[in-house]
Here is the input.
Amino acid sequence: MRKLKLICLIASVLTSAAFFAGCVERRLIINTEPKGAIVFLNDEEIGTSPVTTSFMWYGDYNVRMQKPGYETLKTHRKLKAPWYDYFPFDLFAQILYPGKIVDSYQWKFNMNPQKEISREQLIKNAKKLKQQL
Here is the structure.
């Protein structure tokens, strides 16, 4: 009888925790100057800047931005996890906390205008490539 009460208590606590579980919303906002660049995060197109996307994990991200008339910008950035995402605080933040935690990051990138290559330089580059073959 005592074991049954304990099992029922544990089941009701777990059910309540699941029902009233908190959550962590992770979002990344990427801005470019000029606006309107197509943004890729880890080789997946996420939209046109300014763009907001959600993410599931912290760590290194490869970022690529493209816009006609501007040089393609390839770089990487790191998202560092906040203190409440480490054990044992993550249990509280992601499961037991009744509210919603918003973890938001903002990155800004400046894109350079595309440089015009002269006809002579283009021919010189082509001859150089031909010699390499």
Summary: Residues 2-19 form the longest helix (18 residues).
